[in-house]
Write a structure and sequence with these properties.
By secondary structure, the protein is an alpha/beta fold. The chain has helices at about 40-50, 120-125, 125-140, 155-165, 180-185, 200-205, 215-225, 240-245, 250-270, 285-295, 310-320; strands at about 1-5, 15-20, 30-40, 60, 65-75, 85-90, 100-105, 110, 145-150, 170-175, 190-195, 205-210, 225-235, 275, 305-310, 325-330. The chain is built from 11 helices and 16 strands. Helix 5 links the parallel strand 10 (about 170-175) and strand 11 (about 190-195). It is globular.
């Protein structure tokens, strides 16, 4: 099969198109013919080597976390899926590789594709959808009547998180450029702040939850808009000790992460705020919950641009430029 290979970590290096063996199916796995693959900044960060201490992959590596496609073969222990099912998934860490024609992954990572989405639309959902779900439903336990600040509302996570928060009954504030106000308002944003000229810290007050996806400066400013006994959840860092323990990092890395997160953790504790870092996990069960919301019309993915498989490197460059609205997808079949 054809696949795009990362041979070495490098900011400028391009992925190489190669012919590789079709993956073998283990007893709990399904072999999926990939029709479309979603791109994420995580793919770019892995390519550049930014996560090589947290996720020490062996090279060469097929990149890509999100997919939509059709099951072609199932392992002997698979019970929930059959050959011919249209599915989508976020492949779990150390089992990624969706920039390819086929992938074999654990059935626990897989969900049936929403019937009302195309393959390209479905491929845009898993990583950002699961991130929004795990932040707002699992960690924040967001409730009706609460106020949530979701940064970068026109981005991949933001476009899904706004819709999920509105479904949960929250009041939603977000940052975006003025050009994207119409988009985020249509998704459900109640308060829109132009990050190019306005300071959200002077506009927002007494919020219950912040979903942080920006830099350290924004992270610390976010603490000032929260009430006591509320939650600041960051998907851009710094990672915290609970995260280090959860993924089983060695003691030296735990110490390093402790010092990286000490400043924000101490400031949050002083203000009575719960700070946590979220590094999302693959989950077919949660993805099935998101499928239900999509089919009911509560969530609709925003796809900015679709590239061909031959344009995979150009697609990565496009998301690295930071101008996409919603998600970017590669059409493989």
């Amino acid at each position: 099969m054809k696949a795009y290979i990362l041979k070495r970590y490098n900011k400028e290096a391009k992925l190489e198109l190669a012919e590789v063996a079709k993956p073998l199916v283990k007893e709990n796995e399904v072999l999926i013919e990939i029709f479309a693959a979603g791109l994420n900044l995580l793919d770019s960060k892995l390519k550049k080597g930014e996560f090589k201490l947290l996720l020490p992959y062996k090279l060469p590596l097929i990149l890509g976390h999100d997919l939509a496609g059709v099951i072609k073969e199932i392992g002997k222990n698979v019970r929930d899926f059959k050959v011919g099912d249209e599915v989508y998934a976020r492949a779990s860490d150390y089992h990624i590789g969706t920039f390819a024609e086929y992938i074999s992954i654990d059935e626990q990572d897989v969900a049936l594709k929403p019937k009302n989405l195309s393959m390209e639309e479905a491929a845009s959902v898993p990583l950002v959808g699961l991130t929004a779900w795990q932040a707002l439903v699992e960690k924040a336990k967001l409730k009706k009547g609460q106020k949530v600040f979701i940064q970068a509302g026109s981005g991949g996570v933001g476009t899904i998180a706004i819709q999920l928060a509105k479904y949960l009954g929250a009041t939603v504030a977000t940052t975006a450029s003025a050009n994207n106000f119409e988009l985020v308002k249509r998704l459900g944003a109640d308060v829109m702040i132009d990050y190019r000229k306005d300071d959200f810290e002077t506009v927002l007050k007494d919020y219950d939850v912040v979903l942080n996806s920006q830099d350290d400066k924004t992270l610390f400013k976010s603490l000032n808009i929260l009430k006591p006994n509320t939650k600041l959840i960051s998907i851009s860092g710094p990672p915290d000790v609970d995260f280090a323990r959860e993924i089983g990092l060695p003691w030296l890395m735990r110490i390093i992460i402790y010092f990286l997160s000490r400043k924000v953790s101490r400031r949050a504790t002083k203000l009575g705020i719960d700070y946590s870092f979220l590094f999302m996990k693959a989950s077919g069960k949660q993805l099935a919950e998101i499928t239900s919301l999509i089919e009911q019309g509560h969530i609709k993915p925003v796809v900015d641009k679709i590239f061909t498989f031959d344009e995979t490197n150009e697609a990565l460059e496009y998301i690295e430029a930071g101008r996409s609205k919603g998600k970017v997808v590669i059409k493989i079949k």
